[in-house]
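Page 37, top half.
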Amino acid sequence: MDNNTLHIIGGGMAGSEAAWQAAHMGVRVVIHEMRPAVGTFAHRTGDLAEMVCSNSFRSDDDEQNAVGLLHWEMRAANGLIMQTADRHRLPAGGALAVDRDPFARSVTEALMAHPNVSVEYGEVDSLPESGQWIIATGPLTSQKLGQAIAAETGQGALAFFDAIAPIVHHDSIDMSRAWMQSRYDKGETEAERTAYLNCPMDKPTYEAFIDALLAADKTEFHEGETAGYFDGCLPIEVMAERGRETLRHGPMKPVGLTNPHMPDVKPWAVVQLRRDNALGTLYNIVGFQTKMKYGAQTEVLRMIPGLENARFARLGGIHRNTFLNSPTLLDDQMRLRARPNIRFAGQITGVEGYVESAAMGLLAGRMAAAEILGHPLATPPQDSAMGALIHHITGGAEAKTFQPMNVNFGLFRPVDGLKGGRRGRKDRYKAYTDRAKSAWNDWLANSRLDAEQPV
């Protein structure tokens, strides 16, 4: 097999970004994508970079938020995912949310148009023996390839269950009960300050909702499967099982909101929905991932004030999510220690979230391309967001308790001379992001290759 061509299995966020980065460095890339010939539970199309859960890339604040900092680093590296997200962004009160279908089509078109990129459709069901490869198959890695990975590592793939939130048709929402407002009116424009649709609950309604949620029929697991959920994406019924107040202090918290229909009455709980497309015809229920069966979902969700007559464009669901024990299996270049011609990227490495997955694709693509070109790159500095994340998954985390991780400031080395605690948080976060930007710019400057082409 041609060692000058980079083969990427999986055309999701990580695979798409890896292909873009390597192609712009002058390397030929082949993306192997099994969809649409072989589908998954969660995907609807054959587009690259299809968003299957939320349509949000979360906070875009690059001074006070670690994921916003990751946005900044990806933009600085001419990342395709961030370029495309910016073109298709929707109002989201300080977050970066995108119109998911045009976003995926644009990523697909950009990669198809690149002279160094080709796409081959069909399932890859075994580990390649030769050539340079990146496996970026995400949480829904096909069963055959998953078995091949497990056989090679000798440890098996770890697994947890990831749940999908429902999407509602806007014209079926009762706006005489709901209203538009971002928490604390956050955002620089009126569209940002009114980016979320809010459905209030009084205490009796909330208690009845919790009772129905706990009693609802749920999806059963297959024999031999266990439900090791990622805490950042818990189904609402699992949160309710942890305590009746859990949801009210989580996705249904009523803080920073005033109901204009009843301004003198503070809601006991609030369900928020976020626009899911540019037309504003679809809204997803924020934080409402669920494993309730479809019939139960419609009954329980229509108990939410304003959603009594809701029509659902998509109901919630649950799927198996596989990931590697990366601290044991991968080196700091994201190569499989036992088979260094194979790199892994994206959610299968144990990062969680669209942005983190794409960021690991960006690094894997650059590192693989540089190796092919004969100029290996240093691992990004640990003080950058990408460096902190790759350090965590390839050695910083405890292998025995390794679980999927979002980027967060807890992964960053402390800044000397700054006090801890909530009071010092703003200055501390700004120091983290200033240091990270400097470190990332230095790494980018030092990792430019003669073969690299302008974006």
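Page 37, bottom half:
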Amino acid sequence: MYLNSPVTQFESLSLTKEPNPEEPEIEKAPVEVAFKSPSLPPSVGEGAIYLNHRGNSLAQQKSEELQKTLLAHRHDRQLVILQDFPDPDALSCAWAYQLIAQQYDIKCEIIYAGALSHQENIALVRLTNLPIHRWTPQTLKTKDLSCYQGFVLIDNQGTTSQLLSSVQQAGIPLVVLIDHHSIQGDLQSEFEDIRPYVRATATIFTQYLQTGLLALDTSINQHVKCATALMHGLRSDTNRLMQAQEEDFMAAAYLSRFYDAQLLNAILQANRSKRVMDVIERSLKNRIVQNNFSIAGVGYLRYEDRDAIPQAADFLVTEENVHTAVVYGIVHDEDEELEIVIGSLRTSKLTLDPDEFIKEAFGQDSAGRFFGGGRTSAGGFEIPMGFLSGSNENSAYAKMKWEVFDTQIKQKLLRLVNPRDNPIQSE
């Protein structure tokens, strides 16, 4: 059985952007999974035997529950809703779900409302032909939603999608919810698999594959590309596997049988755009450093440049004597007349919980939903600007508005960073 094979076979996993031309290519053995038909119980699959031997009964149980849910929704049409700015983990898992659902004659459309701006995300979609579609709130109004029998949330819980409220108002039920973030709200789903202790949603989906929900085949190009996308998602959410746990490594080992190392390397070598470099430069210029926290507001950004914010945070956290970086800006979409404050947090401090830090700093909206959250070493927040959104034709007004939001965000962050120097006087 592969997963108990010598560790040398695991060495085919590429952890760097530079391939080793001297490393011999490892022959990928064909997959032999007993779980051939969606109507068969997944427990007979090769991956399921491994999981049971490891005592991972939860993964097995969830796979069986998901299978029953899919069987109950044969021939349905579903919407797979991702966060407005989907990352590799979300993109790859949505694709894996679509391939699994196809076996039950379930047609899925993967949609998001924001933008793909990170160069690696753009490369991932283009090089793999990942089937994803952008539906803005305006686009949604032109769609006939009555043809969908359910919707799916993957790697998010609806708090980071503009599409959720419209889909719910259309009366479409939530059928599947799969995520590795902390619980964000009270959503009722027919099937739910939320595991905050798992480093990547890609690990959860790889376990589904191991139990036989989909038998990957290296002769099928789509399977190879999806496995490559899952490897990228797993690698991305575990900081190049440096923060991976045992189950993440085992998931990577399983995927190493199917993924295309050259394709992954091409995705990772995508170049930063000039706009991203400009935002990084702005963050360096505007940052303040207190108590080993680096905080930087970068002003206004185009909607399509949103992913420059986490890249700037990735850069600032590498500065000497800095363990945590927070970068934020006002992201605006002129076409949709939408503005939102978006921020990213990166930390190397083991005792700092990004999820708790962001939730304590920014709190909840009127519906009780948090403005942000996080996972190990990373987090993010999105704050709608409401009535103050738009109307930036007057440069003096736009500058004044930015200064107000910049000051308010800094106050909320510094209240936690420097509690004794808190500029906000609480009664």
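Margin note: Residues 156 and 320 are 33 Å apart (CA to CA).
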